Amino acid sequence: MDKNELTGAETLVYAKPRLVNDTEMHYCPGCSHGVVHHLVAEVIDELGWAEKTIGVSPVGCAVFAHKYVDIDWQQAAHGRAPAVATAIKRLNPDKMVFTYQGDGDLAAIGTAETIHAANRGENIAIIFINNAIYGMTGGQMAPTTLNQMVTTTCPEGRDPRIMGNPLKIVDMLALLDGVCLATRQSVHTAAAVKKTKRMIKLAFENAMANKGTSIVEVVSSCNAGWRMNPVDANNWMAENMLSVFPVGDLKNL
Amino acid sequence: MLQEIVISGFGGQGVLSMGKILAYSGIMEGKEVSWFPAYGPEQRGGTANVTVILSDKPISSPIVDLYDIVIVLNQPSLDKFESKVKPGGTLIYDDYGIRRKPARKDIHVFKIEAMDESMKMNNTKVFNMLVLGGLLKILPMIKLENVMKGLKKSLPKRHRKLLSMNEEAIVHGMEIISREG
Amino acid sequence: MSEEISLMKGNEAIAHAAVRYGADGYFGYPITPQSEIIETLMELAPWKTTGMIVMQAESELAAINMVYGGAGCGKAVMTSSSSTGMSLKMEGISYIAAGELPCLLVNVMRGGPGLGTIQPSQSDYFQTVKGGGHGDYRLITLAPYSVQEMADFVALGFDLAFKYRTPSMILTDGVIGQMMEKVRLPEFKRRRSEEEIRKQCPWATLGRTPDRAPNFLTTLEMDSSLMEQRNIHLQAKYKEIQQNEVRYQEVLCDDADYLLVAFGSAARICLKTVDLARAEGLKVGLLRPITLWPFPSEILEKYASKVKGMLTVELNAGQMVEDVRLAVNGKMPVEHYGRLGGIVPTPDHVLEALKKLI
């Protein structure tokens, strides 16, 4: 078979979402961000909300999210996306407003903004990529780094006696009355991708229906930061991360 | 006309609100006014004071060195402000709790026993209005009708029912002030 | 301008004026001596009338980033704080300037450094007009000296912010914030509709419509040559503001031998010093910068060849004096008189300092 046959309509099982443009992504091959970007774009398109969606991107690897998904975006200062999204939604209550944040952004520098936005029950969706490491700055320890896991700022492995334990922030957020959906998913298998997409859709619907704050954590791999190839990273994630960060709904009202 | 006035006493004595009523009364009289409080923790029990300036011309500095009129309602205020009365100016004090009386001879000194009187009336809330009445008696810089208008204007709507009580206290205050020196 | 005269604090006037301007949102965090701004807004409850949102944020950081989010949608949004809190907002202000977002900032200054004092000060002059946050940006800085100007500069600040797509700052202090004076509040203006905002601010992120490309607001540019272009663009805009928006007031400057130069509360004190000095036969005038950036350098340079000396009076250790000296460029002596840490000098103190110069 030549290339045309391989990519023809009859063999097509998956098409690029309409809202994802042709800009070459800066994400490393194997990174979970690309998958989740596609899911976000697909869901917005399926809901028909491209004209009333405003995304808030973080500081971290997703700082360039606006380059790839053709909706209106604001890129927030490090950790402040939930505050930025709070104002956008309050001032535009008929829009769908979501943040897209990594673990350093959401669970370290932005912890206060995350907790208070959720506690106020801001009608926003939060997509939270947890890959247990700082990807953009080159592989430093994150609040969600696993114990004994090696990073450039814990080269002998995370020692919980000195560095604390992996922060289960979505478990914390699930306790807040303002939160209507707190779920943890992953994108390392086709089935997991489908489930994650359903939860992103639910989160966006909640935000539009003003039901409160929805958080979708996506346990992700960072093969570059972890110094692995993509396949090994996926396996390592399934074997090591999912026991600390098990998938499933923590709250779904 | 330019009157630079300071009112000083314990926080909670109604020093700031007395100043506010005086300022509002000035507006009703068509004067320029400024009201500047010593703000902060003083509001919660320490010594509070407020500078009120009434003038026929636009007011320059809301903060001044010396005052035409000094009203002191406790010993620390007397200690702090006695020296700040302009020569020939006026000092009004309530001698409740006063251990050391005013000593200056180059100013007019008046005493008003407003605290005792308000306790006799079983209504310490009108204490500051008694003092205001005393001030207006010796220095009628604002017509009484404009003071009453100012009082009404400065009371929050939910306190309007207290209006007549305060009006009566102002009138009564005029009766209980006496010259000392 | 409304006919009715009110008596209110400078802080309260800002709150009333914001609602009347048709502002869309206020985001703040309590701090003395400016908490009356958010308290008054909460009391006014404009969300029930004009639709303006008022929010108490969890921190100054959150508040300034809420302003970023709202301004990014083309909304007329504002925040207020006092010195310490303003320091926390500086990162966000740098982002807002970089993102070319219009908004109104209010700093009711208190004494520093550190937690300092809650009493009045003007020691954030450097922070405001020389940077504060990182990077080459400028803030249009308005220095009101009366409660009336506190009210009036809300509209002026917003209008300039939208005209130039850049943040404006009302830089005031505990004296003007806490004092009550007569004020005529502006008339009520309607808030802009989304359609009007889309027209006025085509860059606003209000949802991508089919007729345009997506809008995105970012302050990141990895390509240094493009980042330099962005900076050059900002500097060109700042130059335009410097050419068009300098504001100042001259009081008895025409025949003056000596000039007091002061802004905000210090200028009010100096007004009386001018009277006291004139009563003693001293020919003294006051030059009051109303915009601290852009700074009225030209008029100061003009007076440099006419007067014998200048005295800047500031509630700080000598900050604006540097800009005055730059403006007169050594043509005559410029001295500084200031009190620190929340102490407010009286008109007589200033007169004594002036006599030393003479």
Question: Features of this protein?
Answer:
heterotrimer; B: alpha/beta; seven-stranded mixed beta sheet; 6 helices; 7 strands; C: alpha/beta; Rossmann fold; five-stranded mixed beta sheet; 13 helices
What does the model show?
The complex is a heterotrimer of chains A (253), B (181) and C (358). By secondary structure, chain A is an alpha/beta fold. Chain A has one domain: Thiamin diphosphate (ThDP)-binding fold, Pyr/PP domains (Rossmann fold, 3-Layer(aba) Sandwich). Helices cover 38% and strands 18% of the residues of chain A. A 7-stranded mixed β-sheet of chain A has the order 2-1-3-4-8-7-9, with helices on both faces. In chain A, strands 5-6 form a two-stranded antiparallel sheet. The radius of gyration of chain A is 18 Å and the shape is globular. The model of chain A has no long low-confidence stretch (mean pLDDT 95). Chain B has helices at residues 15-28, 75-81, 114-120, 127-138, 144-154, 163-173; strands at residues 2-10, 32-37, 47-55, 67-72, 85-93, 108-112, 177-179. In chain B, strand 4 (67-72), helix 2 (75-81) and strand 5 form a beta-alpha-beta unit. Chain C is of the alpha/beta class. In chain C, strand 4 (77-81), helix 4 (83-98) and strand 5 form a beta-alpha-beta unit. The N and C termini of chain C lie far apart (43 Å). Classes of the chains: A alpha/beta (253), B alpha/beta (181), C alpha/beta (358). At the A-C interface, strand 1, strand 2, helix 3 and helix 5 of A face helix 3, helix 4 and strand 9 of C.
Q: CATH homologous superfamily of chain B?
A: Pyruvate-ferredoxin oxidoreductase, PFOR, domain III
Tally of separate helices of chain C: 13
Tell me the span between the first and last alpha carbons of chain B: 24 Å
**What is the gyration radius of chain C calculated from CA atoms?**
21 Å
Class by SSE composition of chain B: alpha/beta
Multimeric state of these chains?
Answer: heterotrimer
Low-confidence stretches of chain C: none
The percent range for strand residues of chain C is: 15-25%
Number of domains of chain B: 1
As a percent range, the share of helical residues of chain B equals 25-40%
Weakly predicted, low-confidence segments of chain B: none
